[in-house]
Amino acid sequence: MDTHDIHRHLDRLHDHKLRELLLDTGIIQHFDTGVELLRTGQYIKVVPIVLQGSLRVLREDESGREILLYFIRPGESCIMTLFAARQNKPSMVRAVVDEPVEMLLIPVDMIHRELSSHKDWLDFTFSLFLQRYEELLGMINDIAFSQVDDRLLDLLRTRSRHSEGGEIHATHQQLADELGSAREVVTRLLKKLEAEGVIETGRGKIRLLKQM
User: What is the value of pTM for the model shown?
Assistant: First the structure.
């Protein structure tokens, strides 16, 4: 990715000098699908800004069950990571690569030293917080008022929109974890959607054939 593309993905940071500072002090790294970048309980050393691809941020309980909180896409960072880093507390979430990702990794000490009072960085942080807050309200609304089959179809639509070629690479267990449901329920609903001609399934992949 060239410098022009990197700046394009950082356009939520309006201050050009701030972008240059981040590029000078940060490290650009690439990670493949499925790589766990952050564990629950881990202390934060770097804060990521996604340049390409996407991450899934998940919350897990003591039994190991997980629920999807949100995706991190180009130009975005993880608000939970930012808060944990600011307070020097262990992470309360887990982050996994959803689509092959390229990220700019910003050292935490640089954020404390250079960015904690920078207006453009604070605006970026608060805009992320508002975005995630609205997404979480939507998720709570879905859990409270929507049936699992509606939530599954919404999840498939979201994943399809943000995946290369519209093909969803996920196991039944991963989808169940993201919905906070059981694998058997998701398997049954996927078979129903396939019988209705809504989706086509293969080994570890799903494709939407029509919208409903």
Answer: 0.71
Residue pair 115/46 in contact (Cβ under 8 Å)? The answer is no
CA 152 to chain centre: 17
Q: Give the start-to-end residue ranges of the domains of the chain.
A: 3-143, 147-208
Question: Domain 3-143 falls in which CATH fold?
Answer: Jelly Rolls (2.60.120)
| C-alpha 185: how far from chain center | 24
For domain 147-208, say whether CATH 2.40.30.20 is its number. Answer: no
Mean pLDDT by 10 residues, the chain (212 residues): 74 86 92 94 94 91 80 93 91 93 94 86 92 82 72 88 80 85 86 89 83 54
3-state SS of the chain?
CCHHHHHHHCCCCCCHHHHHHHHHHCEEEEECCCCEEECCCCCCCEEEEEEEEEEEEEEECCCCCEEEEEEECCCCECHHHHHHHHHCCCCCCEEEEEEEEEEEEEEHHHHHHHHCCCHHHHHHHHHHHHHHHHHHHHHHHHHHHCCHHHHHHHHHHHHHHCCHHHEEECCHHHHHHHHCCCHHHHHHHHHHHHHCCCEEEECCEEEECCCC
Query: How far is the C-alpha of 212 from the C-alpha of 210, rounded, in Å?
Result: 7
Q: Sign of torsion, CA 159 101 38 184?
A: positive
